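Hi P.,

Sorry for the delay on this. The queue was packed all week, but I finally got your sequence through. Input first:
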Amino acid sequence: MNIFTDLSSCLSRIAQIAGTPDAPPAPAPARPGGNAPSFADVLRQTLGGSGGAFYPADRSAYHGMVESSAARWSVDPALVNAVIANESGFDPRATSRVGAMGLMQLMPATAAGLGVGDPYDPAQNIAGGVRYLRGLLDRFDGNVPLAVAAYNAGPGAVEKYAGVPPYQETQRYVAAVLDSYRRYRGAP
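Then the structure:
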């Protein structure tokens, strides 16, 4: 079996479950003598992302919640969508290996401090996450890359390094969120 056959089978099954008519085709394998793409490259191309960013097609269930919270806290809804996409892939039941919960992956102490009683409730999670993001934007004078880095690594790490911390995970996260942000804003 090769990766392309497996990926095509998975995409077909996902389309069947989701009730969509056709799954996107899996990318073709490299030509003889060429370099075969990695699994990550194939998956990224299939999902439509680049540079590791995630850009899911359907976020409509949360559109009103994002718009409302973004307006309340004066945060660009495209940025909120970019954070949610990269944090949870719009899965309200997501739980990270370190205990972050819900759409915006709030840590228990952060959620409690923001008054979020049920971090798995999409409305509460989004409201709390957007409020937290607003605080980070204010703390870093509206600098989106620094606020995003602080969302991932904590504001103390951003202040310690006077910029995006030199953590590989955080640097990848910032690049992915900014790429998603650009896409949600409709920029080429």
